[in-house]
Amino acid sequence: MSKVSIIVPIYNVEKYVAKCLESLTKQTFKDIEIWAISDGSPDNSASIVKEYAKKDNRIKCIEKENGGYGSVLEYAIKNIKTEYFLICDSDDWISDDAVEILYNAAIKNDLDLAMANHYEIYEDGTIKNTSNISAYPNVFVPEFEKVYTRENGLEKFLFLIESPHAKLYRTAVAKDIKFPHRVSYTDSLLYMLFVLRSKKAMCFEKPLAYYLMEREGNTMTDVNPKIANYYHTVFTSVVMQYEDGNYKSQYFYYRMFLKFIRINTYVANINDKKIYNEKRKLIYELLKICSNKRKEIIPFLKYEPKRKQMAYKMMLNPLTSKIIYTYLSNKTYRSIH
Length: 337
What we know:
CATH class of the largest domain: Alpha Beta
Order of helices and strands: EHEHEHEEHEEEEHHEHHHHHH
CATH superfamily of the largest domain: Spore Coat Polysaccharide Biosynthesis Protein SpsA, Chain A
Structural class: alpha/beta
CATH architecture of the largest domain: Alpha-Beta Complex
Shape: globular
Helix content: 40-55%
Number of domains: 2
Number of helices: 12
CATH topology of the largest domain: Spore Coat Polysaccharide Biosynthesis Protein SpsA, Chain A
């Protein structure tokens, strides 16, 4: 049996999937299987995968009805038998030694999670080294190639970048995670719930993945009114599974509050003011979830700039939250448009 499964979700990527598969078949670590899962893709993507599968029997071309990114992850994680898995989106690719570096570290140190930095690739050919694996460096920047446990700071991995790029997961830890269907951003759900369940993790500074930015259909760069619904669904699913589970963290609700702040900024990119105001009501529900846990959040506002601490406290106060949220979200919208 192979040692690592690479999950490749596929939907309308016929321009990109060949480059992705090329990077996977050229891995220096050969003991892999590639699960290329077409999520009801209407274009020629599956045909391209099948041609590659004829040349490399490690590639499995799986076609299923459309159910969204989460349904692909759910199907794959439920069915793979390997000890570890990695996700490579079909418009991205990984360095030739990515699996070798991550897998060897995982085996040597009995890790649940091994992860690395990634490059951002733009349509004009520009390559940007993110050089920062932390999404919130004011809260936590990890030491690289250090084994983190729950006793020495693994919980703070919640503040690292959530995207699937260059992350090797232990399959058994992810088996009970539930994924909502027909929404985007479920890779974020996987990462956060996985960290909460993990016992050992490690980061590498070297970028091992290439993330294609700006392409049409990229959920992080396309402005679509549905993003508010996607964010709402994923956010509430993470909270529900956290509250139903046995894995707790002192940082969890502070992390979710920071997620709410970023979600509000992303949603403010919606051009139609009427639609934005409708979606803003949906996002306000996420603030109310945080407000109910304000006693767990407020101690960690010390990490925020002083000018924001008072505003955040007022947002978390049920008596003033709606007024402050409305004022700040309008200000954010005006600054963007």
